[in-house]
Amino acid sequence: MQSISVVGLGFIGLPLAISFCEKGFRVYGIEVDTAKLDWLKRGVSYVQEDDQGIPLDKYLQKHLQQETFIPTDRMEEAAKAVDTYVVTVGVPVSGTGDMVYDYLDSAMQNIGSVLKKGDFILLRPTVVPGMIEERLIPQLERVSGLKAGADFHVAYAAERVAEGRAMEEFRTLDVVAGGLTPACTERAVQLLQQLTSGTVHVTDLRTAQLAKVVENVQRDVNLAIINELRQVAEAHHVDIYELIRMTNTHPRVQLLMPSVGVGGFCIPNAYYYLRASVDNPHMMPLYDTARRVNSDVPNQLVKDAATALAASGRSLQGAPVAILGLGMKDGSNDTRLSPPVDLAKVFISSGAHVRAYDPTIAEHSFPFQVESPEVCLDGAQVLVVGAWQPPFEALPWRQLLEKTNRPYIIDPRHRLKGYLS
Ligand SMILES: NC(=O)c1ccc[n+]([C@@H]2O[C@H](COP(=O)([O-])OP(=O)(O)OC[C@H]3O[C@@H](n4cnc5c(N)ncnc54)[C@H](O)[C@@H]3O)[C@@H](O)[C@H]2O)c1
């Protein structure tokens, strides 16, 4: 049985580690957060994923029992058994748009300290293009005293999966891989081909890093088109959904659907990574604008709600606002850079009284969270469907909606349309 280490057991690393286990690998999962390790050792997943109707917890418990998944914070323990490290530790972006390199730097130092000749490091986080050659490899070399490309191999293959469908997509999606040398690339191809039935597309290291951020920036731009179109449609008093349907009958047009904002760890951060990788600050005016348009969506939605309430003689000041689902998108319990959370904050700063319900997110994660849909919806004058969570499917919506008070509804994906009279 081949043993590997997956470093970082977050939203991506945990389902990735378990997906390797399912492919017959023994995986040493390295995680520095001891609270997460405690959950894992008890067989409880903090990441909401399932595969073929089976929740991640069940896979986790199976592989703990079979000792094919070994969660630990001890890199030395893994180093004795593995020659391959798959790194999923990311680079957060601060509120001021600066990169927080500390986590990935420390992962490099930990790996560097146990690195042996012949080892292979496959990096999978989204990164500032160029930082692998300029920042990460020099750290590995300095700490290990070994030479990249000669003594050990390094390659990059960004993770492309979507939270909520991660395990299926690890198995099926094409990936782009680029190594420091052809031999490094070959190690990446050999490993990835054991995980995915998709194609492993081979390129150079820099193109591989750029390809990932460009994929996300392209989505940012496409989503900005729709978020801007919302106001254009309103100005013409036309239904944006009808407009999108008609426009998409053109074979070369593919407009996306509106949303409550563009968030999550991936799309907004990719813009900042790309921006940090170029010297000229004026090089990307279109991408700058798209990011600005998308990050302004919560403000626009709150403004629209205030206007709608005023039209019916009401005020946002003190108005009960119900938000259903706080994940960064449907089916996700990740609240980092989450549009529904941003929306809640803008409503609160506009004087509204926000109550949010999301059974997939730990209680008391936010001061405006409430424990039941009844409390959330009671008297609501504004109703927002932020992220549609799997447990919502079973709720008695018709009955619950009777608790609201003629609400202005923000439900861009029409989740509640069938229940509204
Ligand atoms: N979340 C997504 O949907 C998604 C999709 C595609 C790509 N990605 C990329 O994948 C990467 C990981 O994202 P994520 O959402 O899993 O992040 P995450 O924050 O959930 O996971 C990172 C994990 O690494 C751990 N960690 C930090 N420092 C460590 C160290 N030195 N050693 C071991 N573990 C350490 C953290 O405690 C955390 O559990 C990011 O670059 C992200 O951009 C994410």
Automatic annotation (TrEMBL):
GO terms for molecular function: NAD binding; oxidoreductase activity, acting on the CH-CH group of donors, NAD or NADP as acceptor; oxidoreductase activity, acting on the CH-OH group of donors, NAD or NADP as acceptor. Keywords: NAD, Oxidoreductase. GO terms for biological process: polysaccharide biosynthetic process. Residues 322-418 form the UDP-glucose/GDP-mannose dehydrogenase C-terminal domain. InterPro entries: 6-PGluconate_DH-like_C_sf (IPR008927), NAD(P)-bd_dom_sf (IPR036291), UDP-Glc/GDP-Man (IPR017476), UDP-Glc/GDP-Man_DH_C (IPR014027), UDP-Glc/GDP-Man_DH_C_sf (IPR036220), UDP-Glc/GDP-Man_DH_dimer (IPR014026), UDP-Glc/GDP-Man_DH_N (IPR001732), UDP_ManNAc/GlcNAc_DH (IPR028359). It comes from the Bacteria. Belongs to the UDP-glucose/GDP-mannose dehydrogenase family. PANTHER family: UDP-N-ACETYL-D-MANNOSAMINE DEHYDROGENASE. NCBIfam families: NDP-sugDHase. This is UDP-N-acetyl-D-mannosaminuronic acid dehydrogenase.
